[in-house]
Design goal:
The chain is an alpha+beta fold. It folds into two domains: 9-102, Translation factors (Elongation Factor Tu (Ef-tu), domain 3, Beta Barrel), CATH 2.40.30.10; 108-156, no CATH class. 15% of the residues lie in helices and 34% in strands. Helix 3 (125-137) links the parallel strand 7 and strand 8 (145-150). The structure holds flavin-adenine dinucleotide.
Length: 163
């Protein structure tokens, strides 16, 4: 009988290890993560992953690092509910599940050769940072770069030091 060719990778939960974690603001925590099998996440700027904790749940979270960083990736999580609350209790050495990457990502090729203006408010900087760092790592392919970053109060600003 002919075997059906099915791509199971979208449903496969990959084991991942938290390498480092840091509270960034009262509500948001940064996580530096690596897949346990040593593979690259292989995402495009702007894509997201499904993050899970067994027995708690799963939620979509944007990848905040550039794909030029190959052996690990970064997430920023706002504590709003069940999964994100449980994630905030985790730290370096803890394990989580990762599915993906998912989503279309930003049209990087169309942007090449152009001046770029990035506009983000609050948590919006998280997926945009993936593209900003990609541009920074391929600086000669892009023109001038402007970043407009908004936040409710100075203590809520994410990545203000990097900008
Ligand atoms: C493509 C994408 C990318 C994302 N990227 C990020 C990211 O980078 N970082 C990030 O922090 N978030 C991100 N999010 C948002 C994140 O996925 C959601 O905040 C997610 O729902 C959190 O899951 P949770 O289990 O912690 O929250 P849940 O427990 O599902 O709660 C979610 C919200 O619903 C409310 N709620 C829950 N139960 C009830 C109820 N019974 N009645 C009324 N309200 C209720 C909660 O108060 C909360 O505001 C992204 C979402 C998408 C779609």
């Amino acid at each position: 009988m002919k075997k059906a060719h099915l791509n199971y990778s979208e449903y496969l939960v990959k084991d991942a290890k938290i390498l480092a974690a840091k509270q960034m603001t009262p509500a948001e925590k940064y996580f530096h993560i690596a897949l346990a099998n040593g593979e690259s996440l292989d995402h495009e700027p702007g894509q997201f992953v499904m993050v899970s904790i067994p027995g708690v749940g799963e939620a979509p979270i944007s990848v905040s690092s550039s794909p030029t960083k190959r052996t690990s990736f970064e997430l920023v999580v706002r504590n709003v509910g069940k999964l994100t609350g449980a994630l905030h209790k985790l730290g370096a050495g803890d394990r989580i599940g990762i599915r993906g990457p998912f989503g279309k990502g930003f049209p990087v090729r169309i942007l090449e050769g152009n001046d770029l203006v990035f506009v983000a408010g609050g948590l919006g900087i998280v997926p945009l940072r993936s593209l900003i760092n990609f541009v920074n790592d391929n600086r000669r392919d892009f023109g001038k770069v402007y970043i407009l970053l908004g936040c409710k109060t100075p203590k809520d600003m994410l990545f203000g030091d990097e900008v």
